[in-house]
Design goal:
By secondary structure, this protein is an alpha+beta fold. It has helices at 2-10, 62-71, 80-83, 105-115, 118-136, 170-179, 195-198, 208-216, 228-240, and strands at 16-18, 26-27, 30-31, 38-42, 55-58, 142-144, 151-152, 158-162, 217-220.
């Protein structure tokens, strides 16, 4: 972010931060989403807190905030609530093509209730992630990701890397764990493998770092209410794969 913001300042650019997974995370003592002009957070059901669908955008700019309020409501200059406080509720203007992107009151109420529990949810995730770290860090061929020295991490996901020295591939690890009713997955498939981007690639373009990470990374089960018994079952199942 330091390098990105320097480039943005030098070229008079706006930075929109995609913080979908990282509500509550910090970098260089600043909350993510506060470096650029706006920060975007997702509240999809898989995120650390949820409103089922939707999310939030944060900004310190009154101009951007006003623009966002207009865009989310069909490009109208006044909301229904504002119009109903006037003698002519039909008197409004459409100043730009907009969208129907409002978060309804029911989902907003759910989000507020989740926010009241957010610190507790985050602490539970961090504690569970640290338990994984302590149990997995000395296993040959498994790399854990630990950002504690640089960031305040919220562990939306818990991802390990299965190296060649583990003895079996990531795909086989996934298959064997699946057979034990342990659901793992991969985050994420590299962008250049998706059909919508392939037409933009040159034939000689290779992405070895992305492909190495893609072929080795594995996301283990992690959620606030995961039990030590469940985590131990995951850990023990991984250990048994080497025997």
């Amino acid at each position: 972010m330091t390098k990105i913001m320097k480039i943005a300042r030098q070229n008079n650019l706006h930075v929109v931060e995609d913080c979908a997974h990282s509500l509550g995370a910090y970098f260089n003592k600043k909350h993510v989403g506060t470096f650029g002009s706006t920060g975007c957070f997702s509240f999809y059901p898989t995120k650390n807190i949820t409103t089922i669908e939707g999310g939030i955008i944060i900004t310190n700019s009154k101009k951007i905030a006003k623009k966002l309020e207009t865009l989310r409501n069909h490009g109208l200059t006044r909301t229904l609530l504002q119009r109903n406080h006037d003698t002519k509720p039909w008197d409004y203007d459409v100043v730009t093509p907009g969208y129907n992107f409002r978060l309804d009151e029911i989902r907003a109420a759910l989000g507020l209730s989740q926010l009241s529990r957010f610190k507790k949810i985050t602490m539970m995730r961090k504690t569970d992630a640290q338990y994984y770290n302590n149990k997995l860090k000395n296993i040959e061929g498994i790399d854990i990701v630990n950002y504690e020295n640089e960031k305040k991490h919220v562990y939306h996901l818990y991802i390990i890397r299965i190296k060649k020295s583990f003895g079996i591939s990531r795909d086989i690890v996934h298959k064997k764990l699946f057979q034990k009713d342990i659901r793992t997955t991969v985050h994420y498939k590299p962008l250049h493998l998706f059909s919508c981007f392939k037409n933009y690639l040159n034939k000689n373009q290779k992405f070895p770092n992305s492909m190495n990470a893609y072929n080795e990374c594995l996301t283990l089960p992690l959620f606030p209410t995961i039990t030590r018994k469940q985590q131990d079952y995951v850990i023990d199942s991984i250990l048994r794969l080497q025997k």
